[in-house]
Amino acid sequence: MSRTVFLISGSDARKFLQGLVTNDVEKIDTGLVYAAFLTPQGKFLADFMLSAHPDGILLDVDTDHAPVLIQRLSMYKLRSQVEITETDIKVRRGTGPAPEGALADPRHEALGWRQYGLEAGDDGSDFDAIRVAHCIPKAGVELTPDSYILEAGFERLNGVDFKKGCYIGQEVTARMKHKTKLRKGFVTVSLDGEAELGTEIIANGKPAGTIYTQTAQKAIAFLRFDRASEEMDAAGVKVFHTVEEQV
To answer: Is the Cβ–Cβ distance between 44 and 148 less than 8 Å?
Structure first.
């Protein structure tokens, strides 16, 4: 896990982020907030955690995705009273007893806690296994520039707020929520062997999805629900799925 923590400060910090990200920034007063920054077309750009800080708001993002996110945020600063500063704060996470000052991961209780301070790393928990068991996509693996957050389960993972008002990509996201039935999305499937990441899933002779993170005999898969069946194939590996939308 490599994370970079930025401090968003200034008198307009909350207002600034509120108009850009998918979740309600005001929720930081009660704990961690999981959110994403989208393109105007409603596609995924980066996801991150937001938390309250005496000097503003901490933004905790995957280090590989930090440059493009900060570039986009900086584009929207304009005349806002906002400063974006990279900090030396480290991120530690775990699933055991939470240390003092740690905050619960808002995506799922199984993900445990996150602590911001001088130490980085985790407590040895198998976070990939947790992600697969609870179908929690990861940026750079399942979450890509082609992803729509509702197909990625952001509503279930507490990463989007439909009452907060406008943000970038909000129109597309709201239309998917209210006017269409999701036809694709991430689910957890069972396998009878090992399939490489990116392996195509075939159902009834037609492409039905893709295998992503696998641990033991389970994997996160992206499926077309109209083609998925209870038993499918991924390069000779049987894929089993109870036909129910998990997003």
So the answer is: yes
What does the block give as tokens for 166? 């406008």
39 with 146: CB under 8 angstroms?
A: no
Q: SS3 of 173, please? A: helix
HSE on the CB side for 47, CA within 13 Å? 27
**121 and 185 share one domain:** no
Instruction: Please work out, in degrees rounded to the nearest 5, the angle formed at the alpha carbon of residue 12 by the alpha carbons of 58 and 4.
Output: 20
147 and 189 belong to one structural domain: no
Distance of alpha carbon 212 from alpha carbon 220, whole angstroms: 5
Does 165 lie in the same domain as 222?
no
Domain CATH number, residue 204: 2.40.30.110
Same domain, 171 and 190: no
CA 90 to chain centre: 19
**What is the domain extent for residue 28?**
3-178
Taking only the tens place, the pLDDT of each residue in 180-193 is 789 999 999 999 99
Among residues 216, 156, 163, which one has the least CA distance to residue 191? 216
- CA–CA gap between residue 230 and residue 222 (Å, rounded): 14
Q: Is the pLDDT of residue 244 over 70?
A: no
Q: Is the pTM of this model over 0.90?
A: yes
Residue at 48 is within a domain: yes
8 A C-beta contact, residue 153 and residue 186: yes
